[in-house]
From TrEMBL:
<dbReference type="Pfam" id="PF01588">
    <property type="entry name" value="tRNA_bind"/>
</dbReference>
<dbReference type="InterPro" id="IPR012340">
    <property type="entry name" value="NA-bd_OB-fold"/>
</dbReference>
<dbReference type="GO" id="GO:0000049">
    <property type="term" value="F:tRNA binding"/>
</dbReference>
<dbReference type="InterPro" id="IPR051270">
    <property type="entry name" value="Tyrosine-tRNA_ligase_regulator"/>
</dbReference>
<keyword id="KW-0694">RNA-binding</keyword>
<dbReference type="InterPro" id="IPR008231">
    <property type="entry name" value="CsaA"/>
</dbReference>
<protein>
    <submittedName>
        <fullName>tRNA-binding protein</fullName>
    </submittedName>
</protein>
<dbReference type="InterPro" id="IPR002547">
    <property type="entry name" value="tRNA-bd_dom"/>
</dbReference>
<feature type="domain" description="TRNA-binding">
    <location>
        <begin position="8"/>
        <end position="111"/>
    </location>
</feature>
<keyword id="KW-0820">tRNA-binding</keyword>
Length: 111
């Protein structure tokens, strides 16, 4: 593990957003969904997420998640990802989304 400074951490824009749409992503190399997330003043951004083991498409809209919104866009197959959704791997390596315990305004920054 490498130490970082507080200034390094402040550069990372970890923001809360609400999933407004979740779609299948059959073209992905590994099972994934396409997500559209409302980050309030930062707009609606899209990404893909390999979260198919723990989540069904129909349960995702309305869920608040945490994303990094200041990474450059990344091409994933035929899809352009606009932010990094955050999560943790379970004991099998399957991703569990990072979320908030109570509702907060979209676009709120982790402090």
């Amino acid at each position: 593990m490498q130490d970082i400074t507080w200034a390094d951490f402040e550069k990372v824009e970890l923001r809360v957003g609400t999933i407004v749409e979740a779609l299948p992503f059959p073209e992905a190399k590994r099972p994934a969904y396409k997500l559209k997330v409302d980050f309030g003043a930062f707009g609606i951004k899209k990404t893909s997420a390999q979260i198919t083991k723990h989540y069904k498409l129909e349960e995702l809209p309305g869920k608040q998640i945490v994303g990094v919104v200041n990474f450059p866009k990344k091409q994933i197959g035929n899809f352009m990802s606009e932010f990094l959704v955050t999560g943790f791997a379970d004991e099998n390596g399957d991703i569990v989304l990072t979320s908030v315990a109570s509702h907060v305004p979209n676009g709120s920054k982790m402090i």
